[in-house]
Write a structure and sequence with these properties.
Radius of gyration: 30 Å
Shape: globular
Number of helices: 16
Distance between the termini: 73 Å
Length: 508
Amino acid sequence: MLGFHTIQTSLVKLVPAGHFYQQLLQAVDFSFVRPLFAPFYSAGGRPSLDPVVFVKLLLVGHLENITSDRKLLELAQLHLGIRAFLGYDLAHPLPWHSTVSRTRQRLPVSVFEACFTHIVGLCIQQGLVEGHTQVVDSAYIKANASMSRLQPKRSRGAAEAGTPRGDGQAPRITATPGRLKHIQRFHAAIRKAAPKKAGKLVSNLTHYSPSDPEARIAFKSGKARVLAYTASVSVDTAQHVITHISADLADWRDSRYLLAIVDATQQRLNSFRLFITNVVADAGYCSGENYEQREERGLTGYIPAHGGYKGEHPGFLYDAVTDSYTCGQGKQLVFDQVYVDAQGNAKKRYLAKARECKVCPLAEQCKGKKAKEKRLHHTPYKAHYDRMLARLATRVGQRMRRLRASTVEPVLGSLITYYGLRHLSKKRQAGAAKVLYVAAMAYNLKKYLRFNPFQPGGLGIALPAPAPFRWLLLYFCNSHSTSRTTFYFTGYSRAHFPSWRIALDAGK
């Protein structure tokens, strides 16, 4: 007979035991969340959203590549595996999407960071993290703000006036007059080159977003400008586990954030008794200060110099002992002073003697017509640059550069494409940081769930056992994920001989 039939079954019976969320529920004990959230929950009043359910919901959103809380709850309403993962029965109503949003807003960033640190600890216990080599990189994540609604900032002498911003005031311009004149000349050159091209010329120094004042105008060559945040990540090279992630402002160079990223990563790994020895990054993180501070911290860096650095001056020989240059005519250029150029970079200047340049047959060709003497300059961190370039030229340095491209770039691509970071649905830097922490947790949990330390690469060779021990040596070549050679020594009788696993780094 056709008609409505009452469903009388258990939700657990409807979800396969091998389903991803069932495996995750069995592998991870999410009760660690409660002590972290306890200081922010009241003992009385109306019952709040269970913190374990809240964290699970956020993880499901990134695992399913969903950026909207409303869409997330719609999926959870229909998905039996997600219901079982959350601990909700078929007849139990799920929380409202607004409850999830308000709970996220009211909790501080430190709680999300503590949850992320706990997941990193689980990965370390499982053997996914070695800690000694960390690869750093960043990517722009589109903010929840529109370029078409940018507003100009207040000038220093402007009167207080109401703006569309919620607090009734636009931020004040903090750039120097010289910097503002440089921007005006730059805009004038653009208008002269393309007078008929429509568009508003904007800058982070002169404009801001009323809906998200902390979002910054970011751009890359060949791409349109967007309001974004910078997602900075540190990835361990063993199994590509994310050991640090942060939401930074997008109007600073990557090099400004390197030391903060390294310090935060080192502090997190040190709490689990792991220590960083190598830091790998691209040329965007290059600066003399970073090279110097990295050496003071006892870290070995593999960070290429940017294209503007010149290690040598053709026709001049530098002597590090006397800190001077010698030209092709045998004349010496001695150190004069340290000055700051127009871009704000410190440089060391070297001068030749005017009387010697005056009688030199190559004077006009060397120093020009107007200069009285030949002048050279280089960065005060020249020794640090030279050591870095020499290290990168070695086989290990070349291997590290290849390792960077194969380690951190796929991680950032996966986060943006498959873990809900194609754009941020939350505003402000704190909201962006919360989203990034949960996305990194989801990524690491999937690594944690799929990791099998005893999975062989497919090649096994049985060798004769040594007479005194009667052991069987099995050699597995599992270079599919890491550059390792793994030896398994298995006792002839498990009752008397334990199993040992010795991993040797073939590339070190």
